[in-house]
Write a structure and sequence with these properties.
There is one protein chain. The chain contains 7 helices and 79 strands. The chain is mainly beta. A hairpin with a 5-residue loop joins strand 48 (603-604) and strand 49 (610-614). The relative contact order is 0.03.
Length: 1060
């Protein structure tokens, strides 16, 4: 829903006539006004090009197309106009990453987009939500029926809410259909709103496919493709409804449209391209041309692919001459299917293609031949019309006849200013494939400007960018920074911004890399001086100030140990100077002599003076008081010297030929410090520079080809304990020595008899480099502690810094004392520290749930626990014990009424008071195919249902049938003479009944039902008049051998009886 706010902006001109005597003012006012309309809550739900909108955030993920965006699909906004401009406002928020967005208005959705315009981009920042506004400049009388959003920052989801767009239009504007051919033409409309409905004509295609062996399994689909949609595949798909090989289909198209077409088959063989195999009409194989009739008419067009003749090339000069052919073959364009080697072989002047030949005519010439990839064969004696004046802009050197088209040559110059020094200036653009090296080159004017000369000037508008020393200008970045897009009329404001020269607009002057002019460099000079120690003042002295330490300029304190002198403007002569700090002038003779660095003192005799100098044009200066170098920074590192005795182990070796120490100072990465044994005494040494005071632990390792030089081949801690060695670095500049002895003279192993790797021969417990017992335990019942961590190759006790979580993180199995509590995170008393579920004395879970939505299964919520339902405990028990039952919802009951129809039927329905006793208004039953029909009510009615059955429109009469049969069992609602109706009672279940009666269908047995007849049939229930009597005494009813009065009286006495 959009709230529309209408504002009348009124202006008026007033003319007043004043009569002094009567003090009467007569005024006339002429009013005009503009209207503003504001649409609120605009949403962009249509995604295209790979964008994503989840209802809250708009996102252009990596990999989405450059043109990807979001479309507003609410057509009630359209058309929009901005006669007096407008505005877009919204509240924007991000997920943390700033996102740039802009909006676009188009005349209609793609492809009918022009006129269109883009708003300026805006950057949305912050997660809290802020208000943003974008002004829309006046767009004249243009209207827009497509409103788009673009997010130009990839992978930066952005939320846009409360989006409003304010449009403006003249009071005299009337929106409507302005096309007089449309059915909804509005003669009062002044602006077309895109609503025109133009009636279309129909073209009916009739294609006889009997002459070709298609369609087939490989090419299963038949289509006509043509020029009406640019020869795209699957133009109109055809179908053969009656299997006679003739395929038909229709196309709705603008009345009077003329187009040509062919037929094609497509399928798996051509990956459903729509162009698998194709034919024109008949033996000529030519395209069929058809013109649509007036609106509402149907035009039939026929095409017969294939030919009874043998088609081929009949020209014996062609490479593919077919001597067996009886008719010339043509392709769908009407070209001969003859292939010629050269222009010497062709039958007439025309175009040689790789697979055919087309003759020239008034509408097809050599230029078109080349454009279609052919080789033209022209008449060498043919006259060519054109401009024969070599001085003209359009001179044609091939012309033999002047056609009066010559025009004076126009020269275009584009002069480009390059702000910095350059060695080459060129141009690129679509005419040169955007190759920076392929476009024209400008000539150097020697004053920082370069000129391109186009003689003659281009005859088409020219899109381009400038290239300086091989670097193409980026006007997106420059214009975004300066907010000046005046030189880039071709831009989307984020991915491209290009210049354009318009035919007839004259010469151009521009500046490389900007829409503005070169920035004038500052003429100021700054000299920034670093002072290594604290200072309260920094000044300068030199010959300009008579070498007076107090007379020169003073620097300003930057607050970071540096001070700045500013000369604005910069001196115009070279400046000799020295620095003065707190009144003390620097001595660069002494410092230069000590450091042998005289680089900052070009004016010196190396013993009595050494002075600085600034040279005109050399730019700003950074220096350090009292030295040509920089301030010395005191070192804060200390040295650790490692001494590792490897004599107790059989390493290093050929397999492990490097000795290293690895430790926590670099995250236990391999190859920490490589050690060496200079005197071959088995003791390896090496050192580490590290920040003073650092404490770390380490082990020794050997590595080599056996472990792929991982830095961790085999490792040891110190001595028999195998423990990591801890060391703390001393103060800056100090050396701390630490030692480690690899190996042990004792027999190391696991000495715990409960371990699976207990070693009875071990004299001391073995440990790994982490201080863990080298004992392996099968289960937590075997460990030496109450709690601890079992690894695949060792065991570690828990301590304040190492518990179950760390054990699991390192791949171990934690052995802990069970902590009882509620383990269900959905419970209100969930205990994250619990390791085992707690139960009460009744076996109920101790978890407490706020509602049935949280319970793990159907059951009973108590104030202090939860019990699941089972065969002996249900909802009623739950209530009895004061709980809240959470039951499985009962599925809705479905009612089926199955009706048997004794005779054939085509429809079975139901009627009753619910349907006003209308035989056609009630539900219809489905045919089960066996004489029964089923009504399905899903869900079943919740009230009792009174009804009767209707077969083929005939409502059953249960009064008559029940009176005859004396069976009223199926008609509980009856007065036994005027109505007898069926009833389904709620909860009574499914129903089976028989149309027209309360009983079952009775099979009709035809025959003679008169017992005295010779052919009496005791099984017959319907007398068919077939009774036969003995021929010797016809009419003798009383059996006295005479057909007389008594027999007649007997017959009359029974006349009218109803015989069952």
């Amino acid at each position: 829903m959009h709230f529309i706010k209408l504002i009348l902006i009124m202006t008026y001109n007033t003319t007043c006539f004043k009569a002094l005597a009567l003090l009467i003012f007569v005024c006339t006012s002429v009013y005009s006004y503009a209207q503003e309309t504001t649409f609120t809550d605009v949403e962009f739900t249509g995604v295209f090009g790979g964008t994503v909108y989840d209802g809250s955030f708009y996102n252009a993920p990596s990999g989405s197309q450059p043109w990807a965006g979001f479309a507003n699909e609410d057509v009630s906004l359209y058309p929009l106009s901005f006669v007096n401009g407008g505005a877009i406002t919204f509240t924007g928020a991000t997920t943390g990453t700033d996102a740039e967005v802009y909006f676009r208005f188009e005349y209609n959705p793609y492809p009918d987009t022009e006129p269109s315009f883009n708003t300026l981009p805006v950057t949305v920042s912050g997660e809290g939500g802020a208000s943003y506004s974008i002004d829309i400049p006046s767009q004249g009388t243009n209207t827009y029926s497509s409103f788009l959003l673009y997010v130009t920052t990839t992978d930066a989801p952005v939320s846009l809410t409360d989006v409003s767009v304010t449009a403006s239009f003249s009071s005299s504007e009337v929106y409507g259909c302005t096309d007089p051919t449309a059915t909804n033409f509005d003669s009062s409309a002044t602006i077309d709103d895109g609503s025109c409905v133009v009636p279309l004509a129909t073209v009916e295609f009739v294609v006889d496919m009997n002459g070709v062996d298609q369609p087939s399994a490989e090419y299963a689909l038949v289509t006509v493709n043509g020029s009406w949609n640019g020869w795209n595949g699957f133009g109109v798909e055809l179908f053969d409804e009656d299997g006679n090989g003739v395929y038909t289909g229709s196309l709705e198209i603008e009345p009077g449209t003329t187009f040509e077409y062919v037929v094609a088959v497509s399928g798996e063989a051509d990956a459903y391209s729509g162009w698998g195999l194709q034919w024109g009409d008949g033996c000529l194989n030519s395209n069929v041309t058809v013109t649509a009739g007036d609106a509402g008419t149907v035009t039939t067009s026929t095409l017969t692919p294939g030919c009874a003749d043998v088609l081929g090339c009949l020209d014996d000069n062609a490479d593919n001459y077919t001597p067996d052919a009886t008719a010339q073959a043509y392709d769908q364009y009407g070209n001969l299917s003859c292939v010629y080697a050269s222009c010497d072989d062709i039958p007439e002047y025309g175009c040689i293609y790789s697979d055919g030949f087309g003759a020239f005519n008034a509408e097809f010439n050599a230029a078109l031949c080349v454009s279609y990839g052919g080789t033209p064969c022209e008449d060498p004696n043919a006259e060519i019309s054109g401009c024969t004046d070599e001085s003209s802009a359009n001179y044609n050197p091939d012309a033999t006849i002047d056609d009066g088209s010559c025009t004076d040559a126009v020269v275009l110059t584009i002069t480009t200013t390059v702000c910095n020094a350059a060695t080459s200036v060129a141009m690129t653009g679509p005419w040169w494939g955007w190759d920076p090296a392929a476009g024209p080159v400008a000539s150097d004017n020697g004053d920082g400007s370069w000129t391109f000369t186009f003689d003659p000037a281009p005859t088409d508008n020219m899109e381009y960018l400038l290239v300086v020393d091989g670097v193409q200008e980026d006007l997106v970045a420059a214009s975004t920074a300066s907010d000046d897009w005046s030189c880039t009329p071709l831009t989307d404001y984020w991915s491209y911004a290009n210049r354009q020269w318009i035919v007839g607009s004259g010469d151009v002057s521009n500046t490389y890399g900007t829409c503005g002019a070169c920035e004038v460099e500052s003429t100021a000079l700054t000299i920034t001086t670093a002072v290594c120690d604290a200072a309260t003042s920094v000044a300068m002295t030199g010959p300009w100030w008579g070498w007076d330490p107090a007379a020169g300029p003073a620097a300003s304190d930057n607050g970071d140990g540096s001070w700045t002198f500013t000369f604005d403007p910069a001196p115009t002569d070279n400046m000799e100077y020295l620095l003065v700090v707190d009144g003390v002038q620097e001595d660069l003779v002494a410092s230069g002599t000590a450091s042998d660095d005289w680089s900052c003192t070009p004016l010196t005799d190396y013993w009595s003076y050494a002075n600085r100098q600034w040279v005109v044009g050399s730019g700003d200066v950074s220096n350090t008081y009292g030295t040509c170098g920089s301030c010395e920074v005191e070192s804060t590192t200390a040295t650790i010297e490692f001494v590792v005795d490897m004599n107790g182990v059989d390493q290093p070796s050929a397999d492990y030929d490097n000795v290293v120490v690895n430790g926590s100072w670099n995250g236990w990465a391999g190859w920490g410090v490589t050690l060496s044994d200079e005197d071959a005494d088995g003791v390896y040494t090496g050192s580490l520079e590290i920040e003073q005071g650092t404490t770390f632990e380490y082990v020794v390792a050997v590595t080599g080809p056996a472990d792929g030089y991982s830095g961790w081949g085999m490792q040891w801690g110190d001595g028999c304990g195998g423990a990591n060695v801890f060391v703390t670095a001393g103060v800056a500049g100090s050396v701390t020595t630490t030692s480690l002895t690899a190996g042990c003279s004792e027999v190391l192993g696991c000495i715990d008899v409960n371990a699976t790797n207990y070693d009875a021969s071990a004299s001391s417990q073995a440990y790994d480099q982490y201080g863990n017992l080298s004992c392996i335990y099968a289960s937590c019942e075997d460990i030496p502690d109450v709690e601890g961590c079992i690894y695949a190759d060792s065991y570690a006790s828990f301590n304040p810094g190492f518990g179950p979580l760390e054990c699991a993180n390192y791949g171990g199995t934690a052995c802990t004392v069970a902590i009882l509590g509620c383990l269900d995170a959905n419970a209100t008393n969930y205990d994250g520290a619990a390791t085992e579920q707690a139960y009460d004395q009744y076996g109920n879970s101790s978890c407490i749930y706020a509602s049935c939505a949280d319970v793990p299964e159907y059951g009973c919520i108590y104030a202090d626990g939860f019990g699941a339902f089972n065969a002996t405990f249900g909802a009623a028990d739950c209530v009895t014990y004061g709980g809240t039952p959470c039951e499985e919802p009962v599925a809705a009951e479905v009612l089926t009424i199955t009706t048997t129809v004794c005779d054939a039927a085509s429809s079975v329905q139901m009627t009753g008071p619910w349907w006003g006793w209308d035989p056609n208004a009630g539900p219809a039953a489905s045919d089960n195919g066996d004489g029964t029909w089923t009504f399905t009510f899903d869900p079943a009615p919740t009230d009792n249902m009174e009804y009767l059955l209707v077969v083929d429109g005939i409502q059953e009469d249960l009064v008559a049938s029940s009176t005859a049969s004396e069976d009223w069992s199926c008609a509980p609602i009856t007065d036994y003479w005027s109505y007898a109706n069926r009833q389904w009672v709620v909860g009574s279940g499914d129903v089976s009944n028989v149309y027209g009666q309360c009983g079952d269908c009775v099979e009709i047995v035809l025959g003679c039902m008169y017992s005295n007849a010779d052919n009496y049939n005791a099984l017959a229930n319907d007398d068919d008049g077939s009774c036969l009597f003995a021929a010797d005494c016809l009419g003798d009813l009383d059996g006295d051998g005479l057909a007389g009065t008594s027999d007649l009286l007997l017959l009359l006495s029974g006349f009218g009886n109803v015989c069952e």
